[in-house]
Write a structure and sequence with these properties.
It contains 14 helices and 20 strands. The protein has 500 residues and is α/β, with parallel strands linked by helices. It binds ligand BES, manganese (II) ion and zinc ion.
């Protein structure tokens, strides 16, 4: 999707599609008013008839509008003007993205960047619009028979500015371009995650990472079982031993910062299919456990975006990738494995495997002497109980890092909320036979999982994002969301002092 910013006369420009946001009450916004006048009040008709109430997210496409050169008008409701918010704006533009994709519109111009949305200037609205439209355009249909008429995607999105906004054109273009790069990385994370488990194996995921890195300023290093053995990664190997697929440790480096500046390290859970192991999961929705590599996919997407944005920082990504399956060789409940770091772990439940592969990956990450570590993982079902599917959980040892992630989540509308990591929860991880148990019982499952991880990061500033609830959707729009790529890229841009 190419992005253009320019002034447009909504009546004279012979475009494919004009996107006109409207309120359900109050006056018509500028461009809509001009179009309405040119057609002697025809725009108000569908509203007067009640066909189109301009409820938030409602769309209506009109053709051959009188006095307008464009082929189509796409009206989109923003709801009540008094209730306009960034979230409503995002919801409306997501609907626009879907409607454009349904109609196969290839060129569209969006009006309304001048609208007064609390806390959001025109550049910020452009970012939200680009990401929401890209989100609505996203499809994962490569395994379906090709449609009779090939699908057409939006090729050019023109952001219309009036004379008053025109001086901000460059700022708007820069913001929208960063949003486009973020959206492309997000869509890639979704593609990786939506691949079925029989395709997306640890080896395949590592190959995708290598291919992505090869066309960018990213260095890739892929470790297999022999190297893991030599490093003493018995937790990662222990999870993988029930599978015929070899595990991989994917390590990527992007060096956009000062030569000797300590890197930020992102660690992402890359469990390509989680059946639970010997502690087998129930069959219901087990297919969704192909999404257990979403933490890894979003880490890979974040470094891709950092390289594409040429952010001036050093970033390393570590993704432990494995399957978790039951097998004659699989780890059994009660087995004890020694971590790379030296602590022994009693595996009470083989379904609590994410923390095991992350533990060795976190220990490995320490060798890069990180300024900070952030990990992302679909780690606990308990996180869905606590925060549902709207909000990711953040826990960490560094309050400033946690606050920065929360702020990045608010700015990118990819929200997160903090849960406490009090020392007292460590009690729940005691084992009678080993240094640690891999489960802490039912209470505070998200917190005890984070407590487990904390034992392997030790003194490095660290934060953990539990994305179990937000990484994918079930139901009508089933599929990976790409979250928290928007949060991560926003965080990285801020950390790099990227102009916004
Ligand atoms: N990948 C799952 C967590 C999960 C479950 C995410 C459902 C999203 C939806 C993780 O490996 C897991 O199985 N966790 C267990 C831990 C428990 C055994 C302590 C869980 O949450 O049930
Ligand atoms: Mn599990
Ligand atoms: Zn899992």
């Amino acid at each position: 999707m190419e992005i253009v910013v320019r002034t447009i006369d909504p009546c004279r420009d012979p475009l494919d599609c004009l996107i006109l946001p409207l309120f359900s009450d109050g006056e018509l916004p500028q461009a809509a008013a001009a179009v309405d006048q040119a057609g002697s009040g025809f725009l108000k008709q569908p509203m007067q008839e009640g066909d189109f109430r301009a409820d938030c997210g409602q769309t209506l496409t009109l053709y051959h509008a009188p006095g307008v050169q464009a082929a189509r008008l796409m009206l989109v409701g923003l709801g009540k003007s008094s209730k306009i918010s960034d979230l409503n704006y995002q919801k409306a533009l997501l609907a626009v993205g879907r409607a454009l994709a349904d109609r196969g519109v290839t060129q569209a111009a969006l009006f309304g960047l001048e609208l007064a949305v609390p806390q959001r200037d025109p550049a910020a609205l452009a970012e939200i619009a680009v990401q929401a439209i890209a989100d609505g355009q996203y499809r994962f249909d490569r395994y379906k028979a090709p449609a009779e008429t090939p699908r057409r995607e939006l090729q050019t999105l023109t952001l219309a500015v009036d004379d008053r906004l025109a001086p901000q054109g460059e700022t708007i273009l820069a913001a929208a371009t960063a949003a486009r790069i973020t959206s492309e990385a997000t869509a890639w994370a979704r593609d990786l995650a939506n691949e079925p488990g029989n395709v997306c194996t640890p080896t395949w995921l590592a190959e995708q990472a290598q291919t992505m890195a090869a066309s960018r300023a990213i260095e890739a290093d892929i470790l297999g079982p022999a190297q893991m053995e030599a490093l003493g990664m018995q937790l990662l190997l222990g999870v993988a031993q029930g599978s015929r697929q070899e595990p991989r440790l994917i390590v990527l480096h992007y060096r956009g910062g000062e030569k000797d500046a300590a890197p930020l390290v992102l660690v992402g859970k890359g469990l390509t299919f989680d059946a639970g192991g010997i502690s087998l999961k129930p069959a219901d929705k087990m297919d969704e456990m192909k999404y257990d590599m979403c933490g890894g996919a979003t880490a890979l997407a974040a470094i891709r975006a950092a390289a594409d944005l040429k952010l001036p920082l050093n970033l390393t990504v570590v993704v432990p990738a494995s399957e978790n399956l039951p097998d004659g060789k699989a780890t059994k409940p009660g087995d004890i494995h020694k971590s790379m770091q030296g602590l022994t772990v009693e595996i009470i439940n083989t379904d609590a495997e994410g923390r095991l592969i992350l533990a060795d990956a976190l220990t490995y990450a320490r060798r890069f002497k990180p300024a900070a570590i952030i990990d992302m993982a679909t780690l606990t079902g308990a996180c869905i109980i606590a925060l549902g599917h709207q909000t990711a959980a953040v826990l960490g040892t560094d309050e400033a890092l946690v606050q920065d992630l929360l702020a990045a989540g608010r700015q990118s509308l990819d929200r997160a909320w903090e849960l406490p990591l009090f020392e007292v929860y460590q009690e729940q991880l005691k084992s009678p036979f080993a240094d640690l148990s891999n489960v802490g019982g039912r209470p505070a499952g998200t917190i005890t999982a984070a407590c487990f991880l904390s034992r392997f990061v030790e003194d490095i500033p660290w934060a953990h994002l539990d994305i179990a609830g937000v990484a994918w959707k079930s139901g009508e729009h089933k599929g990976a969301t790409g979250r928290p790529v928007p949060l991560l890229v926003e965080y990285l841009r801020r950390r790099a002092g990227h102009p916004r």
